[in-house]
Records
---
Amino acid sequence: MSLRDGTLGQKGLFGLLVAVTALGMVLAAADKLLRVGTANVGWTMDGLYVSPTHDDASDAGLRGGGGRALRINGVEVPPSYGRGHTIGPNVREEIGASNTIVVRSPDGEEREVTLVARPWVWQDFVFTQGASDVIGLFFILVGFTVFALRPYEAPSWALLALCSVVGGTLLVLFIPIDNAHPWNTAYFLALVSFTPYVPIHTLLAFPVVHPLLLRRPRLLGLIYGAGVVHGGANFAAWYGHYPRLLPYPRTIGSAILLMVMAVFIARCAWLAWRSSDRLVAQRARILCAGVVVGIIPFALVQFARESFGALEIDSRFLIWPLGVFVLALARVALRPALTNARIAVRKAILYTAAVAVLSVVAFLLVSVRPYAVAALLFPLLYVWPRFEARLERRLYPQRARFPELLREVGAELATAASIDAVLDVVAAAPARLCDARGTVAFLLPDAVGPHAHVRAAGATPPPVDDLDGELIVQLLRATRREMLRAELAVEPQYANVRAECEAGFDRLGAALLLPLVHEQSVVGGMAVGARASDDPYETAEIDALSTVGQQGVQALMRVAATERLRAREREFADLKRFFPPQIIDQVMARGGAAELGSQRKLVTVLFADLRGFTSFSDSVEPEEVIATLDEYHTAMGARIAEFAGTLEHFAGDGFMVFFNDPVDQPDHVERAARLALAMRGDVERLREGWTRKGYAIHAGMGIHSGYATCGFIGYEGRRDYAVIGNVTNLAARLSDAAGPGEILISARSYADLDDRFAAEPAGDLTLKGFHQPQAAVRLLALAPGPARSA
């Protein structure tokens, strides 16, 4: 599914979150641009809490936790002083003016600090807002990246909402929030209002989607509706219209956030230790660590400050750990597969060691000459890629051989001569590439033929008849993407069919199911078993196996095309026995011999045989008989092809030809008559040589038109194309009755000829097998002349 596939409502909600994020980025950028060059007094305030705004203020005494403001220029800061002012009362804001602020540090010590107002510069923004900007943009990047990769899924929505709200809040965390900046204030209050409720959405979607969210999706409306109410309370409290009897809404928000995080940790801890699925347990542990490290400190400090005025810690120190939480969410959302923890830890340790060495070298170089650290860039750019490549080869030795192994598999596929041979190579490849315990490679019915094909390596092949009915195979055809058995427990789309899908994986003995795709359609699949080391299949292995699968598809299509070509050649050779080339071309264009079913049709049949052939064959040697027949058949065969007749058979000195099948020939009677006259002329030329040799041979022919059943008869390997019906009998009897050099044509057939065909009556002939005399005409010649009227 892509971003374009969403409904109008989904696209509208996505656009709203984009707009919220974009507005936060615009407000943050505009604030920086407007404040550059204005007075920076050295601190900013969040209620009574003071934070330094440049490094000089930190060095002068506002270092670290800052503190609570007590007096500014000798004027007490009232205990009721709250948000709406960012620098406090009685402050001289002119550039060059001196201000003295007395703060009480978190350890209880009072400290007096005198600072001179100086212009804001970009370094001050980095010092003050760098952490919040970087982590805020990181939230936004992660949220939109996950949503782009897996759009409109329940976890993606939850992560996008969380990252949009938290990222936007972090971007405007240190910009002026007061009555002089209404846009900043409205935006900040709106996001802060939703901050306690978006994590509820996240709680329902991670580490696995809660069934309640699937069954009651409208529950999200209630959650975010509470956010709207909370927002109204926040706005009312800001402008002084909130009832005094109720707690301050920001305190309520902090309390809700802390409770949601506690429930989140409880759910993750429960799944981490009690879930029977390894992937669910691992996802829960990752998120549990992310919440404890990244969210709980921030939520605790905010709650303590809002509720009790305690834990006066610089917020900038609490922002960086938030990145750990968003990394945990991204890891869970984007990598549902298990990872090889042993190799990941080793890789992290080696990278850390390498970075530590580089950091020490950089520190030593900086202590000598500040610009000397640039000298690190040259060896770093050259050495680091090689270091990383060697590390990959050491940690993943089999991956390093992927190019070589893929070439070997490709060579084997190129020489495979049958569909089963191709599937054998595909089924054996996962064991060579990834140490898979077994693989089933299958081709679905109608992919390259009417039947399914299944081959297995190290596994028991499933029943062929049941393959297309497997639910996981149907899902594979619908999604056209790999399916991991480990995903079944955590992906919401499998919630209603999880048990049936797991049973399907069991029957195939698979941990990974890959599609074989041809022209955007799934034609088969690879059911890959677990690895011998029990390590999970990671992206590199899945990509390599997918490459093998697509190589296999290309080989299958090549084999299928070759088999179709050979079948077509065999079919063409078969048809050459009956039809002339021009008829064959038309038959093949209509689908080949498979389209030549039995049919009832009007045809014209021509029989011809040699008179005196029996006495001739008794008086000469067999070699002379064969040579004479060959001469005769060659001449007659050329004429049959010339007039596009269909040869049913040769029978010694005779043969039978018919017209108007398998292709329509409206002039079929005329074709038969022309063929008979042409063959009689050819026989006359041949008789000149035969007479000189003493052979008394001549030809007689018979023609009749009528309805007959046309089609193939025989069995596989020995078939004839024939016409069956009374029309053939009458044509054969007319041929028997014809004298030497005569062409007898039935009156019915002659009625379809025009006056160009000269003929004379032959009378009513008594023919064997017919109870009534048959009227016949003796065909003489083809003469030019006007056509007869019907």
---
Amino acid sequence: MLAERPTPPPFREQLKDSSEDILQESFLLLGVKYNYKGIDISSLPFSAGDTTGGSELELQATVFGRKEDVDLPAFIEQSNYYANIQKREKSGDIEKGLLSKLKTFLDENKEAYWDNSWVRISLKTLSKKALKTLRYDLLADKTDSKSDFRTDMDRFFINSGDEELLRIPISYLLKLAAADIVANLNISENLAQRIRLLLLDKFSNDNTSPEISSFYIANSKTNLGSELSGEMALRYLLIQLIVGYSNKKFNLVDSGQKVIVYFSPHPSLMQKTISECVSDCFYRELFMNPCLSGWNRGEDKYRYMHLCHMVLSRSQLNAILKLREAGIITNNLVVLPNLSNISLTNNGIHISLGSKKLTDALSDSQSGFSSVHEKYLGDLAIKVAEHFLPLFVGNYTSAVYRLSFTDFHPEKVLGYLPHELDFTHLRMLWRRWKKKAKISIFGNPVTPFGPTFIDNFISFVFSLKGDYVIDYRLINYLVALLSTEKNSALNGVKGNSVSLKKDLEQMGVFDTQMSLYLLEKLREFEVMGFSGFESRHYSLFYSFTDDMKNAILLQNLIYALAYKYILTGQVSHRDIPDSPFVESERRQVIFFSAIDLPTFFVHKDTQNRFIKRVLAKTEKTRVSNRYPNYIRVYINEYKRALFKVLKEDGADLIEMFGMVDTIKNLEDRLKYPEKTSAGKVLKDIKRAHRIKSPLDLNADDFNKKLENYYRFELRQKHIDEALKILDSEFEHLITQDKELVNNFVSSGELEQVKNLISSISGKDITDDSLSLDEQVKIIKILFSVLCHKEKFNR
């Protein structure tokens, strides 16, 4: 019995032992077993039936309306900042172009979409329960019922004539509307409270965007991929219906403020424009979320959001120094990035998978398995998993983007890569990117000179089109901080991230108060209440039931394979050293894949024995002519080699999981680019605008069309997909729990509601053509399905 095993010695004592001893102890404490085939894979963490999962989605929020009616332009024009720059321009203290650019932004927004604007609603439209929710969320400390209100409460209320209006971000509008909906349903108070507990605390925010976490934790009793992706689809559908409810119930459309929420992995073009017109402080006032929901002390979290923005803005400036040290910038002619950094408005999807076996062992104080073991094994599993991440980039999620010639200032286009890659790999990436992009004159790559009119002229004369990349979010956002020579984030030592953050703070890269950015993050039991990993590399899923479902299954397989490697002694920390160079060497493939570069380079004497295992199965490799000490590797061949490793080393796991279809799906994506997430998005864009290549449109036109594609066509596709899932789940629920259904829908209206679900389309929802009554009926069906699913997954 696990409880009979002695508690292991402190980690300092363990360090005196060999890694084999630590791994063997973990093996025993977790109860991993052998059978006649060798290791019993069903006893591994993340094996079949062992995995739980949840996700967070970040969404783009937009308000459509005239500038006179929408909060963002009105707030800017009425601000002290706007008045001050007007006076300073008159006095000659600032150049005239700044005010002119801001006025152009406000006056010439012909499409009338205002991204990340707040909304203004009449308090009279809110139910008593919604007002009670608002009052609670305005407390300075929600754990204290006698707490004072937040010190910034005045910013949430404005006077309009004789009426007081509530002024809130869309992320909070979603929660308030959800509370209002539940309050107006004709159901028992016990059931209403159950729904409130299920939903309301899941509505939160990222730095700027709405962020909504899973309404329930999916359990691998059935197909985990289908369960998790289905939950997100239903969650997304509910969000769309809540938005439609808000537009009507709170009179938003009537007052000229139509709200739209959708998936978009990039900062909006509007966000980019306004960041060039305002100071960083005013930018934060406009866009940093006030954190009304999701945290007990919202103002503290709000200040943390400010810190993140300030640190990343400073960090991007410090990246310029690294580019100079790397020899990429060779003189003092640089284009300074805006201090109003927009990278925090990148919207990704985080998928967390937990292991019941790890969680149970850590929950049992007598098991002997401690956070020390969790960290040691978890860090090593992450290092293994990072090798497989190129299989996901572009294949399952994407963030396609067009870059113009004028974007190719290295200090702008390379984003945070100087903080994520070793100088050697950074130089290699930059050289290959310049060669791939259409920025060459007579065969020689050139980069912009600085003055915009000169760069535009050169671009026109020599037809320098720039480039098209398949996941720009991974380039434009700080996704994985590189370790320092002294401290690594993944060396298996508890507390290592604190030491690394101290190093990075001294270098002007990061701040110790911030959570460390990694592609795969250990979710520690003592912090999260479960043990597992959070994948943070996902950008945009084209489909819930295809891309997302298969990505989750593949993610689970990789974790199980990593623990199989570790607990059978096939991979140790020594096999994947923690030096910055080796770390950069394995991660470079992810960034090369995001840019869609054809080749990368691995040192022929690399210390990474795991990457050697993959290279041994990689075809068409050779010693580089340009870099004699390096092996040139084709990325597509490397991905095929990763696929072979998965199939061969994980054959027993694939059989256990029943993942033959998922493996075939991955193989098809590697063979046929049009079947990938990036390929499907590009295919839709090319069909809609009758182009053969993304380079047939200039960068601004392509990105504008892409933005509208996310806003309308893809949003509608996602809703249609979710409606099919709801229809299927509701039919299943009727046969499984008729009593629960009757709590929401009377037997007399059941057939009417079923017909409503099967007859409507995504277009009906995106066009706001459903009546308020129809929206509420569908929401009630959604609530019944979610309540059933939450109970089933306990």
---
Amino acid sequence: MAARKPAKKGGAPARRQEPAIPSFKPRVVVKFHDFVQLPYEAGAEELVERLRIGPMASLLEQFPGITLQPLFAARKVDEIRGLIDRAVETGSAFRPANLLGYFAVEVPPGVEPEAVAKTLSSWQTVEIAYVEPGPVEPPAVTPGDDPRSVNQGYLDPAPDGIDAEFAWGILGGDGQGQALVDLEWGWTLNHEDLAAQGATLISGLNHSYFHHGTAVLGEVAAVDNTLGCVGITPKLQSVRVVGQWRVGGGYSTSEAILDAVAAMSFGDVLLLEAQTSLWGYVMVPVEIEPAVFDVIRLATALGIVVVEAAGNGGVDLDTVVDPMGQQIFNRASADFRDSGAIVVGAASSTAPHTRLGFSCHGSRIDCYGWGHNVDTCYSNGDGTSTDLYTTGFNGTSSASPIVTGAALAVQGMAEMNLGFRFSPWQLREILSDPANGTASADPPADRIGVMPDLKKIAEDVLDVAPDVYIRDHVGDTGDPHAGAISASPDIILRNDPEPDPQAAFGEGSGTENDAALGYTAEAGQDNHIYVRVRNRGGWPASNVDATVYWSPPATLVTPDLWNLVGSVVIPAVPNGDQLTVSDALVWDKDDIPATGHYCFVGLIGTAADPAPSPADFLNFDNFRDFIRNNNNVTWRNFNVVDNLPDPPSAGVPKGFKALSFLAPGAPDKARPMALEVLARLPNEARLLLEAPLGLRDLFGFMGPFGKKDLKRGSVLLPIKAAGRQRLGTLLFPARSRHRLRLLVQIPEKLREREFEVAVRQLYRDQEVGRVTWRLRPPKNVPGRRPQS
């Protein structure tokens, strides 16, 4: 997995002055009905009157100096027809708009474009006429205004981010083989974190607001190097850009989109980093403009995935109406028009994610991403700086690249593993499905869709993710459970190496469900540990890392008690729940603790299904979740001792054996804990629990058989030899270590048999840990079971 990289030292740069934006010349966009046969060429105004399309002479007299030009003049007529024909050939019911019916009326100074549009709209041959919206500046990056809470946290697992880190572990999840086109104003394409992508300009100008385009590309495509940040999909095959400012003058979103579409293929992703103002609405999705809508709809019909910023106007898009009074963004309205684009709103960077006030919202929004605190690449005002970064990229502009990266990751995983890419409609359904993402804090109020969760999509939709697990007990299938958590059959301790561990312990060995294959370490020599794993996912797992720790006996085995034994890599674990065994992890004789009773902790994981970090367990709520719900961690007691009395030791009654253990407090704060003894001893046996005087309240009234030993500062409580005995609940201080002992006496005549006794620790009536002793016959007892 690629490591996240720190922000550039020195903090966010001061914003420099942008270069002057060229003056915008307003135009009127007119769309003739499809039955109109007007040649698509310059000077078409001369043919309008002759072909009886409309009273052009009267229009020229009323508005002197206007001209009629093809809106998509940069593309040849045959190219446009070819794109339309390809869209028709997809076999869908979609009928592409006739883009050759779109013209632009150039309006000279002194002529009111609104008046021209109104007059043209009255013609019987005109479907619609409107003033083309001018450029709306991208929202400014304001580094430092919103200090980031987590460095590139949008890469993290849900609910914080989209879990790009998980996708990197799946073939194609890093964007391999995928193509991106970004539409906006400007970029610093030779930025140190982008240069390796070799991005090129399709058409238009790389003109201004370089910091904006650079930040967008950084989120999606920053390469995995030793500099700056890392993109959601750092290994894209192709990164291209297209400018809304046009060569030779002018500004057009629809022309830029059509140029991009002509250069793209099925399954590629086009990001529209733009917003617009039209018909009184400001900073809304660009598809409100009819020509832009029709070009986007052509793109999606051709299989091009379009991701579109919802805009920063804070508008409820369900209430937006066009000049005909139609609610074109309201999915519940009969007037709704669906371009097929994935429209993205903006939410807070911290979970639960709340819609930010500036974000447009409504039923048309499919997904959301972080709308502030985004850490990414940056540039200065003239686009010459190649080593700047920001912690404060924001708006639907920062949210849209997050969803774009998710789209590219899904396409990459699908193509590399399944052999195909999704259509725009399929991909939008996947990314916007609440089952596949993180809901916002208040979905009915926020109305910005969901943030995609790449782990859920890989596992539940694509079924291309491995799901390796190690059992907590025989019968564990990798699901959350309420069963034992310290009886794993999958950590096997042997005194001597096994010649063929897979044959001895793996699938088909006959030992799959044997929990007693080996649990005794022989002091004074190297011992050998084998780890068994299963993979219930939809894809084989590679390079599964198994790490084993040992801990002193404790009813709560928190990470501060763990001691590293070592790690071993299992090169391949096939899917299909086949039990796979590691090679030997050699436990050096010098690292083995003194004779006693201990516990193993095992962690397994791959890049695609990572193991939890020991640091994750220091939060006790995480600890409780991991021991029950995370199938990449397990515990295994290897407390095996002979049941002959120990050599005399302080405070141990004659004929008793002392089984020492710890009862720890939680690592974060004081919490109420209870202990419970589970004994499987003969009725003739005696069992006592010795605990510090400070825990006397834990046992309540000790009864006539309880004793206090003031000299040793302890209490001694008789425990039932067979069955379950619950002790009281006591507030255990944080990081406390209560040392206790079970004192066991088994009649000599019964020592040829095996017995077991355990103590478990409870928090809110849920087991959070236990320590188990298996008492076996001594070596000189006839019929004794051989040691493993």
